[in-house]
Design brief:
CATH topology of the largest domain: N-utilizing Substance Protein B Homolog, Chain A
GO cellular component, one term: cytosol
Function: Involved in transcription antitermination. Required for transcription of ribosomal RNA (rRNA) genes. Binds specifically to the boxA antiterminator sequence of the ribosomal RNA (rrn) operons.
Order of helices and strands: HHHHHHH
Largest sheet: none
CATH architecture of the largest domain: Orthogonal Bundle
Pfam families: NusB (PF01029)
Mean pLDDT: 89
CATH superfamily of the largest domain: NusB-like
Strand content: under 5%
Protein name: Transcription antitermination protein NusB
Distance between the termini: 26 Å
GO molecular function, one term: RNA binding
């Protein structure tokens, strides 16, 4: 598994944890807590996947209101609070990468989000995520 794919998976799990906690814990503390669990398989804070995850978590947390507004615009007939937490956070990561992470090609960001949806979401997650991120990508004029 690539460093960034693993980082995205970590970021999704940490964002899920942060949302359950009411966004009260900061990114570094949430990632540290994540690393203390057996799920992290002995990763340290300086591992490249963890560093990438940290950048995603910090970026999503910092820009959450902007990301949520973009998601709302394209999630026709879906209120953000009615989406599955996993799908909502995958979309946040995907939109964050499309809008703010310029060294990730848009197609890669979308594909990685779809893969997260397949792995962690429901059977409907991947097409739902694809539809929203594809529309965001087209509107942002990224390709």
């Amino acid at each position: 598994m690539s460093i960034r794919r693993r980082g995205r998976q970590i970021a999704l799990q940490v964002l899920y944890q942060m949302e359950w906690g009411g966004w009260e814990e900061d990114a570094s503390a949430s990632i540290s807590r994540y690393l203390e669990t057996s799920v992290a398989n002995g990763l340290s804070m300086d591992h490249p996947s963890v560093q990438f995850a940290k950048s995603l978590v910090e970026g999503v947390a910092k820009n959450r209101s902007v990301l949520d507004e973009i998601i709302r615009k394209y999630a026709r007939n879906w209120r953000l609070d009615r989406m599955a937490i996993v799908d909502r956070n995958i979309l946040r990561i995907g939109v964050y990468e499309l809008k703010f992470v310029h060294d990730v090609p848009p197609k890669v960001a979308i594909n990685e989000a779809i893969e997260l949806g397949k792995r962690f979401g429901s059977e409907d997650s991947a097409p739902f995520i694809n539809g929203i991120l594809d529309a965001v990508n087209k509107d942002l004029g990224l390709g």
